[in-house]
Amino acid sequence: MAEDRAFRIAYARGMRLLLGALACGPSVSGIVVSDESVRVWMGWAFQATIPRHAIAAADLEERAVISIGVHGWRGTWLVNGTTRQLVRIQLNVGVQARVLGWKVPLTTLFVSVEDRDEFVRLIRPRGPGNGSHSKQAKARRIRLPSPSLKPGYARDANSPGH
Fold this sequence. Notes:
Blueprint: E1 5-7, H1 13-21, E2 29-33, E3 37-42, E4 46-51, E5 55-61, E6 69-73, E7 76-80, E8 86-99, E9 102-112, H2 116-123, H3 133-140, H4 150-158
Parallel strand pairs: 7-9
Antiparallel strand pairs: 1-2, 2-3, 3-4, 4-8, 5-8, 6-7, 8-9
């Protein structure tokens, strides 16, 4: 990839106005993919530069979420302007992001992207299987900032054959 590629964070119609009024709208948010890194920002609320070598997996996330904006806990962050169109970026090493100016750990990023198929194609790690199934399985077992997901983990761990 010779030159940087810019992608827009996806916003629902009403969220363009609301987050725009909070200085986190489309005009001050975005994603830039270069040969060395993926840079994601949403206004003053979130900034991260992820080295390309740190990306273990990048996949479309079909689950819808209920929160919009910047949310996270223990290294997993959600940066979105819509409840759909999400991409999950799983890192093999933690990096630092900035949330409200504070340094925070980043190990998994869920971000809403307008052209998410092309974005995933561009950032998905090269190599055997474009991210092995074992990496994808581990990535799906991360803790999300939703307590309602925890019972599912217990079923996975205790179900026959696991």
